[in-house]
Amino acid sequence: MMERLGCTMAGAPLVYGWHAVHVWSRHLPQGSAVWRAMHREEGAFSSPYGLALLAADIFDAVMVAGRHAAESNGATFRSQLKLHPRPGKKDDGGHFGSGAIPVGEFDAWYYGT
Question: Does residue 66 sit in helix, strand or coil?
Answer without folding.
Answer: helix
